[in-house]
Amino acid sequence: MPKRNPAAQFLLDVCAGVRWKKAHGAIAQELASHIDDQTAAYLLEGMPPEEAEQQAVRQMGDPVALGKQFDAVYRPQTAHGLMICIALLLLGGVFLQICVLPGGLRVSQAVVMVCGLAITAAAYFIDFRRLFARWTLPTYLLCLLLCGWLSPELNGASIPLSYLLLLAPLPLCGCVNRCRHLKWRGLFLSLAAALLPLGIALFLHASPAALAIAGISCFLLLALAAGTGWFALPRRLALPAVLLPILLMGVCCVVSFSHRLLPVLFPAQDPRGAGFFPLTIRSMLSDAVLIGPGAVFADIPNKIPVFHDSFMLTWLIARYGWIVVVPVCALFLWLIGRGAVLAYRQNSFFGKLLCSAAISVFSLQFLAYLCANCGLLISTYFPLPLLYGGNYSTLVNLLLMGVLLSAIRHGSLYTDAHMPQPLFDYADGTLHVHLK
How far apart are CA 291 and CA 289, in angstroms? Predict the structure, then answer.
């Protein structure tokens, strides 16, 4: 067996002391870079190559002690709080369907929940950077096309396509990560990666709510990248270049779907009768009490089956009082807030992007559901994620949570050598804005 050179043997000895095997590659790369730099310095001094490498390795110190130090740093980060919150939402949904809401828990829902948990576990243990290779965006666009062509439409919208569109921010993260330091070329490529899924979904009749959630999430990620100088561009130029398409797309969406805003703003004047649900919801909420059933509950919700599904929160408030809002909103707000904090703490910018993508899509679904259950009904909306939703919603949101947990778990493996300076910085009681 050939004898290894001193540097290779040193790296093996250091990695032997690190229990997390996925960290070995990052540790070896970091140490090898230091050894190569020091070896090059000795070679410039006229030292022979073998002696220069041996001296550089000796300067690194004891490999056993170094391995113990790396073992204390490189460990998988488990977000126990997020896991508990996700489990509470899922168990709360099962409890509601079995013990509270009419209809009970269907077998298909239980099977989908088990499959969704398996997807979450798989995403959690897989290194999240391997999920976003160069082929990810083309594959995702192909899936959008096939889903839009093959899936049937309901009320003028393709439901499977709408839920698949919610995952658009994930391949966008990989595209933005690869466009680092490409300046305007990287910014325009990232804009194209954000616009292509939205354009395909719009052409194939995705729901307006899905377009809004995916579009807002994608452009928030681009604004985050431009605001941190990720594309190696001045912020005063990069941010307007991202915000201008957002403004133009917002104007186009308002013009295209202006007829759907009438039930939201003036439900009683809608000629198609779509204002019935917003008016009914507002009537139920206005008569709801703190604890106990409201006056309208006995007449309306039991006669309209959709209230047990699409307007579950309104149904619970009318049946049990406003008290039910406290635990439901507390769980969602804690999950969203904790996820945002962990996203901010990520060492790598790619980790920040992935966490932000999952949290933004989840948060906007929650916000859309609250609006629908407060009488601000936009014709197509999404169920309450994780707590009570359909099969597509359960699969999509459990995948998002798996990606979020995976990014947190593997966050210590990857760091950016030159982390971009944030747009806003608060230090010593002063808020600094960096535009360069």
Answer: 6
